[in-house]
């Protein structure tokens, strides 16, 4: 009997410890996931630690006059116009409700062009008990086809305190007068456990932004600069991914097919450049997003430039972004309508006459897994269709202009020009040469007046 009892007690004890261990494990995982809300004490101390990190960091910012502003997507989402105007500096007990989010990090941007690297910053950070990691990368402003070796510049700083982080992203002004930051790439020798690198919003991709207007405000008792239009900034952030032009491949291309430097080619590129800048201005005033399409996209992708014998500038626009005042806006800008083919419901394309260079705007339609744009032959009413795999849009720079291209540029160009897109083709027929062209019937004669307009 005594023996049975002992076994029973022992089993019960083992069972109880197992449950306890499981509970501990569960609790630990919750805390690791940042859900320490469950224990109110841990939550407070986590927020307190974060606030102290921010205070230390902003102390450094003040001391070294660092041109930083808040770009943290989680914090900016918590702001409302009221919170910014109210400036809760009156609060005696600062409580961290905007700058401390559900995450273990807060992100700031630093204007690289207005800042001079000062090693004393590192010492001052260490004195305040902040650990610091610096990530460098190539300066793309110095990379060109003539010089592929660029010097390295600081791209990211991570200040760590109590396993919490301030992530500082260094923004540089590029020649198209926009702000750019590089991706966060760790070198082999770097500590991969220093930060939750996969979670950082400003780590995975290079990104580009227009320069935001900033205002000084007080959040959680701390003075910080934020984009004045923070909701606009968040919107811009969501489609800010940036692709660098492929200088290395472009250089290899020009070694096979030397660049045309005749006066004619140089002249065409200058005209195409100014047409591209003008079109971008007109469309951005209207708030219509667009991307480089067809030959203009191929020129960027293959040779970081405009193909001199292409004779036009090609842009793509989603049909959902079509506005009736597009034509009028281009005409006001000095670009008369040359032709209009198709209609909003089907195969719309607009063509404007620039200074010896034509501007073609193709409207793109959604069709399940693919997207397409249409073509129309004026004399016969025949319709064509050019089909592409779905894509998202990324920013890049062409001819000193910040402009969008399909992020999956290789797939887009291959769909349009086939696997041999890397070989120049000078004789081109839009009805038969494209790799992705399909016959698409004929416009009914009664619609011709509407869908075939040539000026
Ligand atoms: C903020 O930016 C958005 C565009 O992203 C714009 O629609 C809005 O009018 C801007 N707000 C102000 C106050 O400028």
From TrEMBL:
<dbReference type="InterPro" id="IPR007074">
    <property type="entry name" value="LicD/FKTN/FKRP_NTP_transf"/>
</dbReference>
<dbReference type="Pfam" id="PF19737">
    <property type="entry name" value="FKTN_N"/>
</dbReference>
<feature type="transmembrane region" description="Helical">
    <location>
        <begin position="6"/>
        <end position="26"/>
    </location>
</feature>
<keyword id="KW-0812">Transmembrane</keyword>
<keyword id="KW-1133">Transmembrane helix</keyword>
<comment type="similarity">
    <text>Belongs to the LicD transferase family.</text>
</comment>
<dbReference type="GO" id="GO:0000139">
    <property type="term" value="C:Golgi membrane"/>
</dbReference>
<dbReference type="GO" id="GO:0009100">
    <property type="term" value="P:glycoprotein metabolic process"/>
</dbReference>
<feature type="domain" description="LicD/FKTN/FKRP nucleotidyltransferase">
    <location>
        <begin position="287"/>
        <end position="332"/>
    </location>
</feature>
<dbReference type="Pfam" id="PF04991">
    <property type="entry name" value="LicD"/>
</dbReference>
<protein>
    <recommendedName>
        <fullName>Ribitol-5-phosphate transferase</fullName>
    </recommendedName>
</protein>
<dbReference type="InterPro" id="IPR045587">
    <property type="entry name" value="FKTN_N"/>
</dbReference>
<keyword id="KW-0472">Membrane</keyword>
<dbReference type="InterPro" id="IPR009644">
    <property type="entry name" value="FKTN/MNN4/W02B3.4-1"/>
</dbReference>
<feature type="domain" description="Ribitol-5-phosphate transferase FKTN N-terminal">
    <location>
        <begin position="1"/>
        <end position="273"/>
    </location>
</feature>
């Amino acid at each position: 009997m005594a023996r049975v009892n002992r076994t029973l007690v022992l089993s019960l004890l083992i069972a109880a410890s197992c449950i306890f261990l499981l509970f501990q494990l569960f609790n630990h995982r919750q805390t690791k996931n940042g859900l320490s809300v469950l224990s109110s004490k841990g939550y407070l101390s986590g927020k307190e630690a974060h606030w102290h990190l921010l205070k230390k960091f902003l102390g450094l910012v003040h001391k070294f006059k660092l041109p930083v502003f808040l770009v943290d997507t989680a914090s900016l989402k918590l702001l409302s116009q009221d919170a910014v105007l109210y400036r809760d500096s009156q609060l005696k007990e600062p409580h961290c409700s905007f700058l401390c989010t559900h995450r273990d990090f807060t992100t700031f941007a630093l204007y690289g062009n207005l800042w001079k690297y000062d090693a004393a910053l590192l010492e001052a950070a260490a004195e305040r008990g902040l650990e610091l990691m610096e990530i460098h990368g190539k300066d793309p402003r110095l990379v060109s086809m003539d010089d592929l070796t660029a010097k390295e510049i600081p791209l990211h700083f991570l200040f760590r305190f109590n396993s919490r982080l301030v992530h500082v992203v260094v923004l540089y002004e590029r020649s198209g007068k926009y702000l750019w930051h590089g991706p966060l790439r760790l070198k082999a020798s770097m500590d991969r456990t220093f930060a939750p690198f996969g979670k950082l919003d400003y780590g995975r991709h290079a990104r580009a932004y227009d320069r935001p207007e900033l205002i000084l405000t007080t959040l959680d008792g701390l003075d910080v600069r934020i984009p004045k239009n923070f909701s606009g900034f968040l919107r811009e952030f969501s489609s800010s991914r940036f692709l660098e032009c492929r200088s290395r491949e472009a250089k290899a291309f020009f070694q096979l097919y030397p660049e045309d430097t005749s006066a004619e080619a140089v002249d065409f590129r200058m005209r195409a450049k100014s047409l591209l800048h003008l079109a971008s201005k007109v469309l951005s005033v209207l708030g219509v997003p667009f991307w480089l399409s067809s030959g203009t996209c191929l020129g960027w992708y293959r040779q970081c430039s405009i193909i001199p014998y292409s004779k036009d500038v090609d842009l793509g626009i989603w049909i959902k972004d079509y506005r009736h005042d597009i034509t009028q806006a281009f005409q006001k800008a000095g670009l008369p309508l040359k032709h209009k083919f198709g209609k909003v419901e089907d195969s719309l394309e607009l063509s404007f006459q620039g200074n010896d260079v034509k501007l073609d705007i193709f409207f793109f339609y959604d069709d399940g897994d693919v997207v397409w744009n249409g073509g129309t032959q004026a004399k016969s009413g025949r319709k064509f269709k050019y089909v592409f795999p779905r894509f998202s849009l990324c920013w890049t720079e062409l001819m000193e202009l910040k402009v969008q291209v399909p992020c999956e540029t290789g797939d887009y160009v291959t769909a349009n020009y086939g696997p041999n897109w890397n070989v120049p083709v000078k004789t081109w027929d839009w009805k038969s040469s494209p790799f992705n062209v399909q016959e698409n019937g004929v416009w009914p004669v009664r619609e011709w007046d509407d869908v075939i307009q040539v000026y």
